[in-house]
Design a protein that fits this description.
Distance between the termini: 10 Å
CATH architecture: 3-Layer(aba) Sandwich
Radius of gyration: 16 Å
CATH topology: Rossmann fold
Oligomer: single chain
Number of helices: 8
Number of domains: 1
CATH class: Alpha Beta
Structural class: alpha/beta
Order of helices and strands: EHEHHEHHEHHEH
Length: 205
């Protein structure tokens, strides 16, 4: 079976970690050879860039720097891990990908979507996810969950209005690409969220 590229998207506190673990277990039970990774990150260099991006002390970072660092990390990630895995017919499950850049740097920061698209085409060529699962949640619930999990990083310190724009951008992208996106109501009990994800995966398989 050819390798497939699945991405998990969503704002803060939507439960990506728990549900990624579920997806990995589900697909491994189907005897699918799958690699799990994350963005920004996934390789030694990309993880170092992640540290720069999320360091709460880097308050002076401008939006263009943030955008370019995201794509710098992504270029390394694609070359070193994602593309080689897909070429070996392995599946790749990624915690966020370029849709997050559209949502956070585009929707949240107000950077031109056309500028992001230009970088996307340059860094990725024609590579796009085969399936994107969007875990959707009202901002107030997500931020409460996130605050109980850990100290906020540089991006998590943004105001709720920032995250409202992020969420709306995600929903707009899902509406524009229904063939790739599946929206999951992440405000449900975890068992119900995972039942919905299992239905999506079964259909995809």
């Amino acid at each position: 079976m050819p390798g497939k590229f699945i991405t998990i998207e969503g704002g803060e506190g939507v439960g990506k970690s728990s549900n990624i673990a579920f997806i990995l277990s589900y697909l491994k039970e189907k005897n699918i050879n799958i690699v799990s990774t994350r963005e920004p990150g996934g390789t030694v260099i990309s993880e170092k860039i992640r540290g720069l991006l999320l360091d709460a002390n880097n308050k002076s970072m401008v939006s263009d720097t943030e955008l370019l660092l995201m794509f710098a990390a992504r270029a390394q990630h694609l070359d070193e891990l994602i593309k080689p895995s897909l070429e070996k017919n392995h599946w790749v499950l990624c915690d966020r990908f370029t849709d997050a850049t559209y949502a956070y740097q585009g929707g949240g920061r107000g950077i031109s979507m056309a500028r992001i698209a230009e970088l996307e085409n340059w860094v990725q060529g024609t590579l796009r996810p085969d399936l994107t699962i969007l875990l959707d949640l009202p901002i107030e619930i997500g931020m409460k969950r996130a605050s109980e999990r850990s100290e906020p990083d540089r991006i998590e310190k943004e105001k709720n209005s920032f995250f409202e724009s992020v969420r709306q951008t995600y929903l707009d992208m899902a509406k524009a690409s229904p063939e790739r996106y599946r929206i999951i109501d992440a405000s449900q009990a975890l068992d119900n969220v995972q039942k919905d994800i299992a239905i999506v995966l079964e259909s995809f398989l």
